[in-house]
Each structure stands twice: as structure tokens, then as C-alpha cells.
Design goal:
Helix content is 36%, strand content 21%. The protein is of the alpha/beta class and 458 residues long. The protein has a nine-stranded mixed β-sheet with strand order 9-10-8-7-6-5-4-1-13, sandwiched between helices. Strands 14-15-16 form a three-stranded antiparallel β-sheet, with helices on one face. A three-stranded antiparallel β-sheet has the order 17-19-18.
Length: 458
């Protein structure tokens, strides 16, 4: 019987810097050759009857969390937020005018930043504009990311009035020392109050976002936070690993590197929290999510229809994702396009009557094939390379070059391979992105600048 390979050896061999694969090609491959005219032509070619998802990005917060890797900034007054809401409506009008028809929206996701910083009035105005420009399906899921520290009763009433069905609350960790070290002091009682008020307003689908790998965390404290989180009976939990990239995010420079756990300690934290959710009966979803057995994510995983997009794991089957706001990404059958990240550049384009596209990438059949393989690995923790290749009418032998690496992973107990079918074992879940990267022909040693943008697998 083969001896179990120590985690330290596995980390040494497989803990490389790899993408999170919320898309393929990843954003590192985006380039300025994709502009507003290109995306306008892509939009015009859409199937008018296809369902559409919307993503609205609100890049403002009341305070800056030092771990945050999102495109956001601190708003000390409401003036920039009010101006942003006005321009967000203008952008929605520009985008709708370039579609082949008035299209049906089945999903809306508000992200940030802190979308609720808009306040009831401006939230209502943007919501009304979306309903004026698109046909919102009666059963559409409307999800919003929330900060319990700034969530008010009037805002909850506005969310309920606009039909919000799901909220994601940033928790990260309940330990006061950890909270202080990342500039996010948020007592457990505050989270409890926010959840109670949301459910009192009949917004009952609650997601909680937790993190491991933060300063002063250990496996015992992370497990304690997981147990505290379960007391709220969340529908879903995201267990994200903190990615420390201070060369990209200035706010992360406020975190003392000496307080961060090493890769082995991070892995122990992940496993400690995962055991809590596993014991409670939550289904492990993909890389880092957990969901109640009757949650739509769990059902999609069982059915083999789980998807992955820029918001993470989803059961959304819409082939079109339209991004609104600074830095938002649009995903279309022809390719990906990202808006200007800076608000001034984004605003200048919108006020000039142009789509605020800064960069993107067109898709060819090779990209689509590899995207299909990577998505199945990330969602199912398994992929039948032969079956996917047959569907795309290409020989599986074109991927023969990855087999030595797959077999090396199998020898380490991370995967099993039967012919062209590759399945990730429980010990391999932490290295899931490394497995997916086998199908990424754009990721190589020549992309050093891109590699530094990626977090390590563990």
C-alpha cells in the first residue's frame, strides 16, 4: 500500500501561482485591442431570445478592509456615490440600445465594494432603470453583497421592495484580534442583527463569506468561526483563502507579512473549517464553497450543470453576462470585455455616449474547448477529456502532453486517472486550480508579469 505523501511535500510540488479560473481565457489575457466598436458588434449578434444576466459593480465602501482585492475606494461623502448612480443608469441605457432587442434578464448580481452604499433613493433609481430597459423574469434571482456594519433598516426595506432574493454578507472571521488586524471590526452580534432583519424582511437566502490565511488565524480559530457561522443556518458559505498581493493592492501593505500563516498552516485552516461544514451536512461545492443539500448550487452540482463565472460558482445557465460599472466584465459568446477600472475614465466614456470598454479578448474554438475542460474540473472535480473532445470534434490526443503531470499527481494521491477521465481526490481539492491549469495553454513561464497577479493554489 502506497504511503501517504506529507502535505509539506505536496505543497512544495504543486503550490504554484495559478488563476482562480472564473473565466477562460483569464483576465491576464485581456488586451486593449478589444474596444467599444468590437463589443458593439458582439452585442448586435446576440440571440434576442437568449436569457441575460446582469452584474452591477459599485466600487465604494465606507472603510477600506486591508485584505480587500476588489476594485473599490472609500467614499467620505455621498457626492461621488450619487454621481456614480447617475452614470450607471446612463451606461445601462447605452448598453440596452446596442442589444438586438429588449432582452429578458434572469439574474442580477450587485457587487462591490458595498452596493448598499447607494442608499434607498439611488438604489431605487438604478433598479427602476434596469426594469425600464430590460424584461425582468418573474422568478429572477437578485443577489447583493452586503456589509453588516453599514446595513440600515431603510436600506433593507429598499432591498426587499426591489425583490432581492439573496444576500451575501462579508464576515471573514469573528475573532476580534483578526478583525482588528485587517481593519474590519464587526462583532458577532452585529452580523446576527443584520441576518435577523434581512429574514424579517423576507430576504431569506443568506450567504456568508469567510476567509482563512488572515493575520493571527490558526486552525482552531477558523473552525470556531465556522461553527459560529453555522448558528445562522446560512444557505451557502464561501471559504476564501486570503491572497496577499501587496505589490498590486496598496491597502494590503498595511498587513504585517510576519503575521501571515505559511502554506501548510493555511491548508490546515482550510481543512479545519471544511470539516465543520462537512460534519454539519453541507455539500462541498467546487473549490471553496459549501451549501445546504437542497440549495440550488448543490442540486446543480448533482446534475452536472454547475457553472463558474466572474461572481464564482453559480447555477446560472444564461449565455450572456452584461457588466455595468467601473471594472465590470461582460461575457458574451464572442468574447470577454472589461470596462475601464478607474471611475474618471469610465465616466468620460459613458458621458461621451460610448461603451466604457478598456480591454478584453475574443474567443476562438480552442479557447472554448479549454474553457469547457477547465470549468468541468473546477465545478465537478472531474472531467472526461475524451467526452469533451468528442463533443468538440477534436481528438483527445492533443492533450497527451499533460498526462505525465496527471500521473505524477495521481502518484501523490491528488487525482485518479482512468483513460481520459481525471477525477480529483479529497486530498487534491486544495490543488484544484493546479489541476485546472493543466488545460491552460496560455499559462507558461514567459508570462512572469501575469504569474505575479495570481495567488498560490494553497
Amino acid at each position: 500500500m502506497q504511503a501517504t505523501v506529507p502535505w509539506t511535500d505536496l505543497i512544495a510540488r504543486w503550490d504554484g501561482r495559478v488563476p482562480r479560473y472564473t473565466s477562460y481565457p483569464t483576465a491576464v489575457s485581456f488586451h486593449p485591442g478589444i474596444d467599444a466598436d468590437t463589443v458593439g458588434s458582439w452585442l448586435a449578434r446576440l440571440d434576442p431570445g437568449a436569457p441575460v444576466s446582469l452584474y452591477l459593480h459599485v466600487p465604494f465602501c465606507k472603510r477600506m478592509c486591508w485584505y480587500c482585492g476588489c476594485n473599490t475606494m472609500v467614499a467620505n461623502t455621498m457626492a461621488p456615490v450619487e454621481a456614480y448612480a447617475r452614470d450607471l443608469i446612463a451606461e445601462a441605457e447605452l448598453l440596452a440600445a446596442r442589444l438586438p432587442a429588449r432582452m429578458r434578464v434572469t439574474r442580477i448580481h450587485w457587487g462591490g465594494g458595498t452596493p448598499s452604499i447607494l442608499g434607498p433613493t439611488h438604489w431605487g433609481r438604478v433598479d427602476a432603470a434596469i426594469r425600464r430597459l430590460f424584461d425582468l423574469a418573474p422568478d429572477a434571482e437578485i443577489a447583493v453583497e452586503l456589509d453588516p456594519r453599514t446595513l440600515t433598516r431603510p436600506m433593507i426595506a429598499a432591498l426587499a421592495a426591489s425583490g432581492v432574493t439573496r444576500t451575501s454578507l462579508g464576515v471573514q472571521d469573528f475573532n476580534p484580534e483578526v478583525q482588528k488586524s485587517v481593519n474590519r471590526v464587526q462583532p458577532l452580534a452585529m452580523v446576527a442583527d443584520a441576518i435577523a432583519r434581512l429574514r424579517g424582511a423576507r430576504i431569506e437566502a443568506i450567504n456568508l463569506d469567510l476567509m482563512y490565511g488572515l493575520p493571527h488565524q490558526d486552525e482552531f480559530s477558523v473552525a470556531l468561526t465556522a461553527r459560529e457561522a453555522l448558528k445562522f443556518a446560512p444557505d451557502r458559505v464561501a471559504l476564501f483563502g486570503y491572497a496577499h498581493v501587496p505589490w498590486m493592492k496598496r491597502n494590503m501593505r498595511m498587513i504585517d507579512d510576519a503575521t501571515l500563516p505559511d502554506a501548510a498552516a493555511r491548508l490546515a485552516q482550510f481543512h479545519a473549517a471544511s470539516r465543520v461544514f462537512d460534519t454539519a451536512g453541507y455539500a462541498a461545492i467546487g473549490l471553496d464553497h459549501f451549501a445546504k443539500p437542497d440549495d440550488p448550487l448543490s442540486r446543480a452540482q448533482e446534475a452536472g450543470t454547475l457553472r463558474r463565472n466572474f461572481q464564482g460558482y453559480t447555477d446560472d445557465a444564461a449565455p450572456v453576462l452584461l457588466g455595468l460599472g467601473a471594472s465590470a466584465i461582460t461575457a458574451l459568446p464572442d468574447g470577454y470585455a472589461q470596462n475601464e477600472a478607474g471611475i474618471p475614465a469610465w465616466r468620460n466614456a459613458v458621458t461621451a455616449g460610448r461603451l466604457a470598454i478598456a480591454r478584453g479578448t475574443a474567443l476562438d474554438d480552442e479557447d472554448r474547448l479549454r474553457a469547457a475542460l477547465i470549468e468541468r474540473v473546477m465545478c465537478d472535480l472531474a472531467v472526461d477529456v475524451g467526452a469533451v473532445c468528442r463533443a468538440w470534434k477534436v481528438p483527445a490526443s492533443r492533450f497527451a502532453g499533460i498526462l505525465p503531470q496527471v500521473d505524477a499527481m495521481a502518484a501523490d494521491g491528488l487525482v485518479v486517472r482512468e483513460g481520459w477521465r481525471i477525477a480529483v481526490l479529497p486530498r487534491g481539492r486544495a490543488f484544484l486550480r493546479t489541476v485546472a491549469a493543466l488545460f491552460d495553454h496560455r499559462l507558461d513561464s514567459r508570462q512572469d508579469s501575469g504569474a505575479r497577479r495570481h495567488a498560490r493554489a494553497v
